[in-house]
Write a structure and sequence with these properties.
about 170 residues; sigma factor; RNA polymerase sigma-70 factor (ECF subfamily)
Length: about 170
C-alpha cells in the first residue's frame, strides 16, 4: 500500500469509519482519534494487508474495531485510577464494577454487530440495514432499489444466516 493508496482509502472510508466509531463511543472527539489511529495502524501494517483475504474496507474496519476497543480499555482504566486516587485522599469514590458495565456491554455488542455487518457482501448488508435497522418494508426497498421482493427476502435469509455464524460461531444460542 503506497501513500496514494492510503490517501484514497482515507477518502473512501474515513467517513464510514468515523460513523462506526462515533456510534460505538458516543464521543466524536474520541471517535476522530480512533479513525486517525486506524489509518496510522493501517500504514504501519500495510505490508501485512492481503487483498485475497479481505477487502480493504473490511481490513480497515477490523483495525478500527481494535482501536475503539483499545480506547474503551484506556477510558475504563483511567476511571478506575481516578476512583482509586479519590479513595486514597478520602473523597467518596464512585463504584467501579469489576464486571462489564451495561454501557460497556452495549458498546461491545454494537462493535461486534458492526464488525459482522462489515463482513457481509454489500448486497446482503444493504438489505439488513434497510429492513432491520432503518425499518423499511421489503416493498419499499424493492421500489427504491429496483430489486424484486423475493430476491430481497432471499438475501435477508442468507445475510441473517451469515450473521448468526459470525456472531455465534459455536451455535450456542
Amino acid at each position: 500500500m503506497s501513500d496514494l493508496d492510503l490517501a484514497e482509502a482515507h477518502r473512501l472510508h474515513a467517513g464510514e469509519l468515523l460513523g462506526f466509531a462515533v456510534n460505538a463511543l458516543r464521543d466524536r472527539g474520541a471517535a476522530e482519534e480512533c479513525v486517525q489511529d486506524t489509518f496510522t495502524r493501517a500504514w504501519q501494517a500495510r505490508a501485512t494487508y492481503d487483498a485475497t483475504r479481505a477487502s480493504l474496507r473490511t481490513w480497515l474496519f477490523a483495525i478500527a474495531r481494535n482501536a475503539v476497543v483499545d480506547h474503551l480499555r484506556v477510558r475504563e482504566r483511567r476511571q478506575r485510577r481516578a476512583a482509586a486516587a479519590a479513595d486514597q485522599v478520602g473523597l467518596e469514590a464512585r463504584v467501579v464494577p469489576l464486571h462489564r458495565s451495561p454501557e460497556s456491554a452495549a458498546v461491545e455488542d454494537r462493535l461486534e454487530l458492526a464488525w459482522a455487518l462489515a463482513q457481509l457482501s454489500p448486497a446482503h448488508r444493504r438489505v439488513v440495514v434497510a429492513v432491520r435497522l432503518e425499518g423499511l418494508t421489503y416493498d419499499a426497498l424493492s421500489a427504491r432499489d429496483g430489486v424484486p421482493v423475493a430476491t430481497l427476502r432471499t438475501r435477508m435469509y442468507h445475510a441473517l444466516r451469515a450473521l448468526r455464524a459470525l456472531l455465534d460461531p459455536e451455535g450456542e444460542s
